[in-house]
Structures are given as structure tokens and as C-alpha cells.
Design brief:
This protein is of the alpha/beta class and 419 residues long. It contains eleven helices and 18 strands. Strands 1, 2, 8, 9, 10, 11, 17 and 18 form an eight-stranded mixed β-sheet that branches. The protein has an eight-stranded mixed β-sheet with strand order 5-6-4-13-14-15-12-16. The protein starts with 5 loop residues before the first helix and ends in a 16-residue tail after the last helix. The structure holds flavin-adenine dinucleotide (FAD). The site of flavin-adenine dinucleotide (FAD) has 40 residues, from helix 2, strand 12, strand 16 and helix 10.
Length: 419
């Protein structure tokens, strides 16, 4: 398979781009693998890559029911940050940030990681105190954070209505400058290509419809392309976790599926070179490299497996966007879509062995699984290869819900739609 380099670009430019090879093979499923990963989203693909790269386990299949990028990895608003308060989250998301910082080089694929910063706006002195506490905790853990004054914010994001029409005046903010964005589908394609190069079989249009058992133990999967046996079966299906785990007889998990919508405006001239979040409501916005404003808000608030949302959230998000940037009120909305979110009861993920022998589970990504993609795969691969969690993902075990050791970043309690 071709190495992407300046020379290969030059060579292909001269011969009409005829020599590019497919980025990954289209193999038929084999009867057995050491590891089968269900779900060809970001987390499934990164898990396969790190299994092969870090643990030398390349006899692996990733089974995807649709095409690569058809799930949330290709539907998110691409924001990446590690600005957390709680130590378990700080360790995990900062590990992810460090992997992001060298990911394009590691995968030999430009994932367009852009450290343009993420600014959280505070709209009351109490909220600013809260942000200062989080920023101090971050710096204490070696993560960058800066408190910004209202004047600094006015200069940093000139298009922002700093008073929000007089209703929600900005009093300050917290910025993580190493935060930013990446091109979401490039992340899927980059991991797929790099895993394939190490021998992993990526099998698209292959839906898992059941599990093979030997007494209590999971020993493989039934799929629309036949039965596949496996030494280990890993589930990384994000919003479909409830449905897939039910096939294995596990019908109670601390996960709810909800729809989250994303929005993109028509392309406009360079307008804003950071990510901004609105603290008095829920809105996050950045500008894509093509010029569209990319933004989103709350989940729709009801349980669903539909990949489309409803008008009340569209109105809610648009009104927040117009309050924030009155200069954009006449810009047209180009596209919107929805993705199924696996909302956990404490807002934190699950990366664990079990819950059945021979099985491994990765889910509970809520609003934030894109930024977790590298660390999630890295930790899940470790957990699968060694049959025990790495210290970084040990707190994200399933039994924390039985033991009452929740990782509730926002302190909201067991209300998934509030995390
Ligand atoms: C609108 C929106 C905006 C978001 N914005 C952000 C953001 O800005 N920052 C951030 O960090 N996170 C964000 N997220 C969250 C993030 O996208 C997800 O948490 C993350 O992508 C989930 O992991 P994944 O990539 O593995 O999921 P997916 O890409 O959904 O992968 C799961 C895969 O499993 C497959 N599957 C399901 N059932 C089966 C089966 N039976 N057999 C085989 N395959 C199956 C699905 O087809 C799917 O491809 C956003 C999500 C949405 C929807």
C-alpha cells in the first residue's frame, strides 16, 4: 500500500492520479479470528489499530453493519478538548490529547488536527469562579488552562456580542489553547488504513445479528455474512449498545440512546478561529476549513434510535446562535443531521472486560466520544489484550454503578440527558 508523502503526491500529480491504491482492502470474513470488534466507528477502528500496533495482535476483524463513517464518527461537530475537573477524566482525556498531537504522523494520514483553542464563556461571577476552579485543577494536573477577562475575549472573538443583547453579558471565560478540532471522517479513514496495513480485516456491510456461546462464554458472532468464531469479542457500537447487548441477553445497562443534532451553515469568509461555547445555555460553535459554521446544542431529550431530530431543538440552537453572533442572522443553514448518542448515567464512559466471559465493552460516550477516539482505542486494546484495564481506564469500569463510585463531572446525578 502506498506511503503518503510529498514524493507520492508529486508522482501521482504527474500521472493523472492513476496510481493511488484503495486505502483499505475489502476482504471476505474468515471463519475465525483472535479478536472480533463489533462496530467500525472511531472507537472500533482505533481499538483494532492499537491492538495490532501496541500488542502485536493483528488477527482481528472489525465488523461494520454499514459503511465506515456512517455512525457518529462521521456525524459529530469535531471538537476536541481535555478541560475536565475530575482526575479520572483529566488523565483519560489528556492521554487522548497527547495521542491527537502526533496522530497524523503516527497514522501517515492528515487528520487535520487544528489546535485552535476552546473558549468556555462565563455569564455570571459564580460561573467564572467555577471555571477558575476547573482551570486550577487542570493546571495542577499539568493541563493547559487560562482564565480570560471580558476585554481579552472581546479582542479574541470580535464577532461575539459580548452582552448577548443585554440578556447574558459575558463576564469572562476559560480557554484551553491546545484544544481544537479535527476532520472527523479523516480520523475514521486514517485509523482504517493504518489498521488494514497491519493486517486487520475491516468488513463493511456485515451486521452482527447474534452471539455464539459455549455455555456462559461468548465464542463468536452470527452476522449477515455468516458465523465468525473469535477468542475475544469486543463491542464498540456507541448508540446501538443497548440493541447489540440485548442480542447477548444483557438487557439492563446504565445507558440510554438519544439523538443529537448538528448544523452547518453556508460557507462564509474566515470569521472565527477558535471553538466557543455559550455558558448560559448549551451551544458550541467553530468554523470549518471550508468556511461553514459548524455548531450544535442539546440532545433532543427523548429516547430514540433515529438518526434525525426535531424542530424544537433546531429553534433552540438557532436562537442561541443568533444571540451569540447577531452578525450571522442572515447566513443560511446548509445542512443538519442527527446521530444516536450512548448517554451514560454519570456522563462518563465504560471501557471494561465483560460483562460476559469472552466479551469486552466500550460505550457511554455521551456528547464527547470523538475527542476520546485515540485514548478509547488505546485503553480498550490494552484491556482486551491483557484481560485487565490499564490504570487510565480502571475507573471507567461497569461495576462503578453498583459500587456507587460515579464519575459525575457535572454533578447532575443519574439523569443522562443532563450530562
Ligand atoms: C451531532 C453530534 C455531534 C457530536 N459532537 C462531538 C464533538 O464535537 N466532540 C466530541 O468529542 N464528540 C462529539 N460527538 C460524539 C461522538 O461523535 C461519539 O461519541 C463517537 O463518535 C462514538 O463512537 P464511535 O465513533 O465508535 O461511534 P460510531 O461511529 O457510531 O460507531 C459505531 C458503529 O457501530 C455500528 N454498528 C451498530 N450496530 C451494529 C451491529 N449490530 N453490527 C455491526 N456494526 C454495528 C454502527 O453502524 C456504527 O458505525 C457528537 C455526536 C453527534 C451525533
Amino acid at each position: 500500500m502506498a506511503e503518503y508523502s510529498f514524493l507520492s503526491l508529486l508522482k501521482n500529480a504527474w500521472n493523472g492520479n492513476r496510481d493511488w491504491k484503495p486505502a483499505w482492502r475489502k476482504p471476505d470474513p474468515r471463519p475465525a479470528y483472535d479478536v472480533v470488534i463489533i462496530g467500525g466507528g472511531g472507537h472500533g477502528l482505533s481499538t483494532a489499530y492499537y491492538l495490532a500496533k501496541e500488542h502485536g495482535i493483528a488477527n482481528v476483524a472489525v465488523l461494520e453493519k454499514g459503511y465506515l463513517g456512517s455512525g457518529n464518527i462521521g456525524r459529530n461537530t469535531t471538537m476536541i478538548r481535555s478541560n475536565y475537573l475530575l482526575p479520572a477524566n483529566q488523565r483519560f482525556y489528556e492521554h487522548s490529547m497527547k495521542l491527537w498531537e502526533s496522530l497524523s504522523h503516527d497514522l501517515n494520514y492528515n487528520v487535520m488536527f487544528s489546535q485552535r483553542g476552546c473558549l468556555n464563556l462565563a455569564h455570571s461571577p459564580a460561573q467564572l469562579d467555577d471555571f477558575a476552579r476547573r482551570g486550577n485543577a487542570m493546571r495542577h494536573a499539568g493541563i493547559d488552562a487560562e482564565l480570560m477577562s471580558r476585554e481579552q475575549i472581546r479582542r479574541f472573538v470580535p464577532a461575539l456580542d459580548i452582552d448577548f443583547g443585554g440578556r447574558f453579558p459575558v463576564v469572562g471565560g476559560l480557554i484551553q489553547r491546545r484544544a481544537g478540532t479535527a476532520r472527523h471522517d479523516a480520523v475514521a479513514w486514517g485509523y482504517a488504513r493504518a489498521a488494514d496495513r497491519r493486517g486487520v480485516d475491516i468488513i463493511e456491510n456485515c451486521e452482527v445479528t447474534g452471539f455464539l456461546r459455549d455455555a456462559d462464554r461468548i465464542v463468536g458472532v452470527a452476522t449477515t455474512r455468516g458465523e465468525i468464531r473469535a477468542g475475544k469479542v469486543a463491542v464498540a457500537v456507541a448508540g446501538s449498545t443497548g440493541r447489540v447487548m440485548k442480542l447477548a441477553g444483557v438487557d439492563r445497562l446504565p445507558i440510554e440512546s438519544h439523538v443529537l443534532q448538528a448544523f452547518v451553515s453556508e460557507g462564509i469568509k474566515p470569521f472565527m478561529d477558535t471553538v466557543v461555547t455559550f455558558g448560559a445555555g448549551h451551544l458550541y460553535v467553530t468554523q470549518s476549513d471550508k468556511g461553514g459554521m459548524v455548531f450544535g446544542g442539546d440532545i433532543d431529550g427523548y429516547n430514540t434510535y433515529a438518526q434525525r431530530g426535531n424542530l424544537p431543538i433546531v429553534e433552540d440552537v438557532m436562537s442561541e446562535m443568533c444571540a451569540m453572533f447577531p452578525g450571522l442572522t442572515r447566513v443560511r443553514l446548509l445542512r443538519s443531521w442527527g446521530g444516536i448518542m450512548d448517554m451514560s448515567m454519570d456522563g462518563s464512559p465504560i471501557i471494561t472486560t465483560g460483562p460476559l466471559p469472552g466479551m469486552y465493552l466500550n460505550c457511554g460516550w455521551c456528547y464527547g466520544g470523538f475527542k476520546a477516539t485515540p485514548a478509547s482505542g488505546w485503553c480498550f486494546a490494552w484491556t482486551i489484550a491483557r484481560d485487565e484495564p490499564h490504570p487510565i481506564n480502571a475507573p471507567f469500569a461497569l461495576d462503578r454503578f453498583h459500587r456507587g463510585i460515579l464519575i459525575d463531572e457535572k454533578g447532575q446525578g443519574a439523569t443522562p440527558k443532563l450530562h
